[in-house]
Amino acid sequence: MAGVLLSAAVACVLLAGAASASSSSPRVFTVGGVERGWRQPAPGEETYNHWATKNRFHVGDFLHFRYDKNDSVLVVTRDDYKRCGADRPVLRLEGGEARFRLERSGFLYFISGSPGHCDAGQRFTLRVMAQRDNGAASPTEAPAMSPGGSFNSTPGSGSGSTRMPPRGNAGDGKTSGAAPFGAYHAVGAALGVGAALLAFAPPLPATISDPPSTAASFPAASPMASRLRLGQPNPNPGLSPSPGERKGEEGEARKPEPRREVTDLGGGSEVVHIPRFMSRETAWEMFEHLDKRIPWTRPTIRVFGRSVVQPRDTCYVADKGLTDLRYSGHQPHAHSWDDFPVLKDILKEVHEALPGSHFNSLLLNRYKGGSDYVSWHADDEPLYGPTPEIASVTFGCEREFLLRKKPTNTKSQAAGESGETARKRLKASAPQQHSFLLKHGSLLVMRGYTQRDWQHAVPKRARAASTRINLTFRRVLP
């Protein structure tokens, strides 16, 4: 009998411990890394959004900010994040060091309070998952929070500015810093049964720690208002992987495969379009970084024997030792990938989306408005080989991308004909054409004999009033 009671007690205690551990295993993430911390990024340095995408944040985790005492951390709304608005923050952290607890699921937005730092890239957004994955690694153990809901900070760090407003649960008026009502009762019931059973059994070595004390955090909003403002497609993001999600080697849930649209052009030519290759927030961070940090040039080129200014800005990046790129009488300077770590990160994502691809060069184009364009052409230079794969990533303003079959010389054939026969021949021989609307964060890939048999263009469009940045990845043959 004692053995049965002991087994039941162990089961109850382990169940309570598991329930407690699932809600009391917070992690601490040092924003930007231990060595870097929170400061204005140097040219070519990894963005804070890139740092954020490498981690998975859950309710109860902490962000540890280390920064100069003349700087600050502002928690802002999405609109203020996009415009770097520091005049009405939801919360201000000052004093050189502070810890911020992630109290709810959804998106949060952080910027620097120092003038000009946000525009220079000192800002990031992250998504907080509602439930922690089993077996998730813990960067460091979270410290105990001080009573009353203020953030832990170093002495003299201005703790008065780091106290959060209370957040109420919908309908019950209770502070949301407490753990879920059902979770505490489940733990309490299990502990009560375990204690009753343990009265008849030998002492157990297992111990159960109390749930950590909590702090008030971000002000609450109704679920619908939060989804509309923060753009959450799922009212409970992160609760469990969707059926379309894949599992990594460590069991970590990965984002679902983006939708692919494949267009067979015939004759061994193919176009693959991934409209949502990159999330909107990440894509906007990329756009702003590239727009300000890339050494754009607008060179003079030769077109039909005339010297003209190229109707778009460009920059070229390539591996060392490759054949020089030349087009329209212009040879761009080849920058190193090491000069732009962000481009290396984007290249990695493109390679992951296109298994078997091996791009080693990149031509960046910036269209500053609807009057910037690229005329009909094909990337059929010998240095790319007979069947090059070309991947194009778009940031910013959406633009129309056209493909047409390379025109044939039919006018000479129709010269000796007249009337209806000539018109029918010319109409039948009109080049076949396809149109793709390349939106912010999309990826388009041309494969096979597309460059041999087809031409492409980005035409002028008066309605395209804002800037588009395009990254075109290619492989130069050795």
In short:
The chain has 478 residues and is of the alpha+beta class. The chain is built from ten helices and 22 strands. The longest helix has 22 residues.
CATH architecture of the domain at 261-411 and 427-474: Sandwich
Q: CA-to-CA gap between the ends?
A: 78 Å
Mean pLDDT: 74
How many helical elements?
A: 10
CATH fold group of the domain at 261-411 and 427-474: Jelly Rolls
- Major sheet characteristics: 8 strands, mixed
The CATH C-level name of the domain at 261-411 and 427-474 is: Mainly Beta
The level of helicity is 10-25%
- Radius of gyration from CA coordinates: 29 Å
Strand residue percentage: 15-25%
**pLDDT below 50 for ≥5 consecutive residues: which ranges?**
8-16, 18-23, 134-253
The CATH superfamily of the domain at 261-411 and 427-474 appears as Alpha-ketoglutarate-dependent dioxygenase AlkB-like
What is the spatial order of strands in the main beta sheet? 9-10-20-17-22-15-13-14
